[in-house]
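re: that chain from earlier
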Amino acid sequence: MKENRSKTGSRILLAAGSIMCLWVGAALTSALSSVGWSVSELAGQYMVAIGMVKPLHTLVDYYTHIKGIEYLLCVAFFVAFPVFFKYVNKAPATVKVSK
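^ sequence. v structure.
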């Protein structure tokens, strides 16, 4: 009896998963066909829709965006360079050689 219930539960989960996969495939196919089968265009529209990327309408918007990226790169460099400098200039390990 217990095996019967677990097989029934597995079949229900498999059916639900299959239906969801078909729905996702249909939605993706529909979305790709609406943008001319361009995956990058679809990804760009998705990122704009969720607010991950904001459209830049003016030169000031673009310049502000570039300056923000520049400041992040500077901070990353100021963190990474001392670590790299320490790694390059560490004293070599002494190794004893025996005959």
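The mean pLDDT is 89.
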